[in-house]
Design brief:
six-stranded mixed sheet, NTF2-like_dom_sf, about 290 residues, disordered N terminus, Nuclear Transport Factor 2, Chain: A, 2 domains, alpha+beta, 13 strands, globular
Length: about 290
């Protein structure tokens, strides 16, 4: 072996700049910051103006008056209200693209000022995406109400590790159709059999799942799985649209759920693991009891 040449080769290789592995940590932090900024604007600017500023210009939807409506245009038309809506994210999740994610947490509404006692409590869920300009905007904002919480809400705990960001963009039209098929299968089982049978094949192996039900505080982890496995009701779901992240690992569906002739809204968030869509988060406005 020609040792000088070998040594020079090693030195040249080690001197080459290493490509930095980029994770979604900065994107996750930007997502959480966007939600907190939204909440701050809600207090300082009022409900209407804060929603107009943060909802996506073209794609956002909100549930008002028992139906889904175009988000930004709807809020732009409603009068400003005097009440104070306060909220804080205590969980967030982001897609591998770093451009799509959701936040959830508690909210409270006070009739006039922050000094008032809240007259309404609940849990919100906001799905966000990063626009071409780099700004984070809300695609859908939805929640459910419950009585005064029995315990303080947990604070947001950021992950200790973050996934490597994906630079591969999939065909979202194909992914949307795939997720719609998953939704339709879920809906058919929930309508013709039981809700627990619909949940069973899509529950994640981990405890990373949240169920928000009207009239109840959030169910999380093992408690959420227990609720899913004991939900013996038959529910008729009508999915209006599915939307997936550019990386194809996170998506959502929203629409209407009918139980005992009562029709309300629902939102389901799905994550894809090992080629299969699993339920990550659900908001159900119709009462099942």
């Amino acid at each position: 072996m020609n040792f000088p040449i070998f040594l020079m080769t090693v030195l040249l290789w080690t001197a080459q700049p290493r490509k930095q592995i980029s994770t979604v940590q900065a994107d996750y932090e930007a997502l959480v910051a966007a939600e907190r900024s939204f909440a701050k604007a809600g207090i300082e600017k009022g409900i209407r103006d804060s929603f107009v500023d943060n909802l996506d210009e073209q794609q956002s939807v909100v549930y008002i008056g028992n139906e889904f409506r175009p988000g930004k245009a709807t809020y732009a038309r409603i009068p400003q209200v005097s009440g104070k809506l306060s909220w804080e994210p205590n969980y967030a999740e982001i897609a591998l693209s770093g451009t799509f994610g959701y936040t959830t947490g508690p909210f409270a509404f006070r009739p006039r000022s922050l000094d008032d006692t809240p007259v309404s409590y609940g849990q919100f869920t906001s799905i966000w995406h990063k626009t071409a300009s780099g700004a984070w905007k809300v695609l859908i904002d939805f929640g459910c109400t419950h009585d005064k919480p029995t315990q303080p809400a947990p604070e947001l705990i950021s992950p200790t590790q973050f996934a490597v960001k994906s630079i591969i963009k999939i065909d979202t039209a194909v992914a949307n159709r795939e997720l719609m098929h998953v939704e339709m299968t879920f809906a058919q089982t929930a309508r013709t059999k039981t809700l627990c049978e619909a949940y069973q094949p899509v529950l994640p192996a981990s405890d990373s799942i949240r169920l928000l039900r009207e009239g109840h505080e959030r169910y999380e982890g093992a408690a959420a799985k227990h609720v899913a496995k004991t939900s013996g009701q038959q529910v008729d779901y009508q999915c209006l649209q599915t939307v997936t992240a550019p990386s194809g690992d996170l998506g959502y569906c929203y629409g209407y759920a009918t139980f005992n002739q009562t029709k309300q809204a629902y939102l389901r968030i799905w994550r894809k693991r090992n080629g299969h869509w699993q339920l990550a988060h659900e908001v159900l406005a119709v009462k099942l009891s």
